[in-house]
Amino acid sequence: MTGAMRAEWVKLRTVQGPNWLLLTCAVATITVSSAVVAVEKCSSAPCAVDTTKVSLTGVQVGQAAVAILAVMVIGGEYATA
């Protein structure tokens, strides 16, 4: 198991772009979530909007960056074979 984990770690470090994509994932998640929360206003006491669900909207955008990272890593692995 440790050999497989070490191999995956080496693969992530040697493929170009993962650092930028991980940074993009974090920035996109935080930015979109902050923007959506800032737009939603609750003027009455019982808010009709689920604030937890709204605040996690950016996670969907961040998942796109993670999907791109996965494709790059897998594609990079098979490109050298």
Plain-language structure description:
With 81 residues, this protein is mainly alpha-helical. The chain has a domain at 50-81. The chain is 78% helix and 0% strand. The protein contains 4 helices and no strands. Helix 2 (18-39) packs antiparallel against helix 4. The chain is elongated. The two termini are 23 Å apart.
Radius of gyration: 18 Å
Structural class: mainly alpha
**Helical coverage, percent range:** over 70%
Strand/helix succession: HHHH
Low-confidence stretches at least 5 residues in length (pLDDT < 50)?
none
Report the average pLDDT across residues: 78
Indicate the overall shape. Answer: elongated
Question: How far apart are the termini?
Answer: 23 Å
The helix tally amounts to 4
Count of strand segments: 0
Strand content: under 5%
**Largest pleated sheet:** none
Which descriptors would you attach to this protein?
81 residues, mainly alpha
List the SSEs and their pairings.
Layout: H1 2-14, H2 18-39, H3 51-55, H4 57-79
Helix pairs in contact: 2-4
In short, what is this structure?
This protein is mostly helical and 81 residues long. It is built from four helices and no strands. It has a domain of 32 residues.
